[in-house]
Amino acid sequence: MINVKNFDIVTPGELLSDERNGGNGTYEEDNKIYSKFLGMIQISDRGISVNPLTGNYYPSEGDDIIGEVTEISSKYWVVDINAPFYTRLDVRDVNFRAELGELDKYIEIGDMIYARVFRVYPNNAADISMRGTRYGKLESKMITRIDSVKLPRLIGKEGAMINMIKEATKCDILVGQNGIVWVDGDESSRSVALSAIKFIDENYVDTDLTEKVRRLLEDVHGKI
Amino acid sequence: MYTERFDKRNFNELRPMEAETGIVPNAKGSARFRIGNTEAVAAVYGPEEVKPRHIEKADRAVILCKYDMLPFSVPDRAKPGMDRRDIEISQVITNALNRAIILEEMPRAMINIRVYITQADAGTRCASLTAASMACADAGLPMRDLVAAVAAGKIGDSVCLDLTKEEEDFHEGEGATDVPIAFLPSKNEIVLLQLDGRVSKEDLKKIVEIGKEGAMKIYELEKKALKRRFSNESKS
Fold first, then answer.
1. Nearest CB to B140; choose among A27, A38, A206
2. What CATH number is given for B17-224 in this structure?
3. Which of the residues A23, A48, B202, B236 has the least number of beta carbons within 10 Å of its own beta carbon?
């Protein structure tokens, strides 16, 4: 017996089903499935899962993330990637030749970097790397933040939402999977893109969000 | 004899309640819970790196909870900072939440919980625990269940739910007995049970039973408050 339906919002400890068909965000006790998070129900062939509506970013291998450099040692940079633990960017994992002991010549404290998570430890700590031509330093003024649980809505189905914002505003947008977003463009179009992102941040549980954002973008564009 | 309550409530009736989440923007999760004239504000930070380092656990997270009564919360000024009572209550809140939060999923991490009492009129530890559990759910921590806590007790020879300060200070007859109880409602598990006063075995059973009824009502309110932020109806 399944007690919930798709898109229901559940709180931790709510009984979901008395079959053993729990997926992500659920736990089993006495052969019953309970919710683990404050989240939204998703029922598929594989079972019931709960997608959390609030919460932290937990790094997983292969994520492209944006982080802020908070500390420099002689062999590595310490980077805040919005996760429970700070991460290290080792001097061997960057895409340029760096001299040991003079790391602040290349990347300084407060700089934003685009990098990849390549190792995750059991306690959700991670190591990141900047190897590869896609990765590098970013202009830190162009950063905005969104909860990482809301990212699926910002990106949309196969990137529909983010591509729409990119096209409408002619901005370069780089979404880190940890919820930090980098927006590049001229002053007015940047503010349009930022307001669209803020709108998604505030209304991310709404249905037909794409349509609403499209209307918002058209509205603001008319005024410019 | 205590035949009618000072505020004319029924013996198994709670005071009017109010709950709200997401009130501290800088915290990962936060909640406010008011029951009668008692109000608690809770904020949750984390999971994050453990400080001080020596309390770190390799296989699970640690909870660091601080309960504090603000100076203006009681008629005569409460001295700021933690006193003996505050430390005890912080500890019982931590113990209750240890059962509620799935700590094994966040090894080597720390969860920081702050609870402040802005108004006190008895039952502050129960209000704090309720607010703290809502804040934890709001912070997106993996949890087995929410915690619903309420004080029950005996005044004179009648069993009562949700005592006020005035009732706690009742001295006629057998005096007042105060029993704070916390439940994991959907698991039917007791995570906090303290007793201040005298009570017989039979009466204690009655008190726990009446407390459970009250806790279920609080649980319904908690669920409603948590879901309210995410339902479409409330926004329009």
1. A38
2. 3.30.230.70
3. B236
